UniProtKB/TrEMBL annotation:
A single GO molecular function term of this UniProt record: nucleotidyltransferase activity
Protein name as catalogued: Molybdopterin biosynthesis protein MoeB
Database matches in Pfam families: ThiF (PF00899)
CDD domains given in the database record: ThiF_MoeB_HesA_family (cd00757)
Taxonomic placement: Bacteria, Bacillati, Bacillota, Bacilli, Bacillales
InterPro entries the record matches: ThiF/MoeB/HesA, ThiF_NAD_FAD-bd, Ubiquitin-activating_enz
SUPFAM superfamilies: Activating enzymes of the ubiquitin-like proteins
All residue ranges annotated as the THIF-type NAD/FAD binding fold domain in the record: 4-238
Length: 331
């Protein structure tokens, strides 16, 4: 009896499907509620390799729904991909992992995700999904959209050359402009979103034919809907239409407001770790340093500088407010 005996016995996969799965590489963008559930499921399914990118660290409010994290991770502000990698390795010692503590943009996707057979969306923002969508259709790599908030969930596969893309379908997607920080979320909604994402992923990896459907519902109200969307191709779409330009792969975002976090992220800073420490010491600003980032406060705002050049300014309401604080600190 093998490790994947029960999966092989399932009529939808079998030995041939499992063989495909065990030679596959899956990319996961985001390592929060959706990302941790997906990462564990993908690891247990037997895939050869997982590539994970996430820009954030573990906080105590994450523990209610984000599996793979422990209280100690929140206490130490462990980067999410670091905690995720540790737990996945304890589940499967033979699993190949490639992780990035970074913001997911076009350059990172092109550097790390071209090896993937499928990409799973576990992000919390619309802009990153547009970049994933363009990348997917430019390089012919399927991706699976997923989202959840309150008690609602949604999942949808986008397959280049087969289905319309995310842009074409946006008009019928359930409105997800609320955030977990403002209206909350319950674990069953996360489980349903990732279950349908995982189902689509396993079908793609095992080369099982299927009809792509947009799936959404409300677990609390026990509502569920599945819609076909194959006829929604937009000939003028810049991602999958007749004249493809993939504009979101060209867009460079220097600062952005993180979803529901009262936090602004600055992407590329013109100084290294030594220069930052020297500047903080000259300004008599106390700081803490670990292998991943430097934490300090300025004007009572917590800040975190990640090695590699990203800066998070917490407790701000707008990008402009963060910019003013940034310029007061660095000139």
């Amino acid at each position: 009896m093998t490790r994947y005996d029960r999966q092989i016995k399932f009529y939808g996969i079998g030995e041939s499907g499992q063989s495909f799965i065990e030679n596959a590489t899956v990319g996961i963008v985001g390592c929060g509620a959706l990302g941790t559930h997906l990462a564990e499921s993908i690891a247990r399914s037997g895939v050869k390799k997982i590539v994970i990118v996430d820009r954030d660290y573990v906080e105590v409010s994450n523990l209610q729904r984000q599996s793979l994290f422990k209280e100690s991770d929140a206490e130490l502000s462990t980067p999410k991909v670091v905690a995720c990698e540790r737990e996945l390795k304890s589940i499967r010692s033979d699993l190949e992992l490639e992780t990035y503590i970074a913001h997911c943009d076009a350059s990172l996707l092109e550097a790390a995700f071209l090896q993937c057979d499928c990409i799973l969306d576990a992000t919390d923002n619309f802009e990153t999904r547009l970049v994933i969508n363009d990348f997917s259709y430019k390089y012919n790599i399927p991706w699976i959209y997923g989202a959840c908030v309150e008690s609602t969930y949604v999942a949808c596969p986008f397959i280049p050359g087969v289905t319309p893309c995310f842009n074409c379908v946006m008009g019928i997607l359930p409105v997800m402009n609320r955030t977990c920080d403002t209206v909350g979320i319950i674990e069953p909604a996360v489980n349903l979103a990732t279950s349908y994402q995982m189902m689509y992923c396993m079908k793609i990896l095992s080369k099982t034919p299927f009809d792509a459907k947009l799936i959404f519902g409300d677990v609390w109200q026990m509502d569920h809907t599945a819609l076909k969307f194959s006829k929604m191709f937009n000939e003028k779409c810049t991602t999958c239409g007749d004249d493809k330009t993939f504009p979101n792969l060209l867009f460079k975002q220097t600062e952005t407001m993180l979803c529901g976090r009262d936090t602004v992220q600055f992407m590329t800073l013109n100084f290294n770790e030594e220069e930052l420490i020297r500047h903080l010491e000259e300004q008599h600003i106390m700081y803490n340093i670990n292998p991943y980032f430097i934490r300090f406060k300025f004007m009572d705002r917590p800040m975190i500088w990640f090695k590699g050049g990203r800066l998070l300014i917490h407790e701000v309401k707008t990008v402009n407010e963060a910019k003013k604080i940034y310029h007061q600190l660095f000139g």
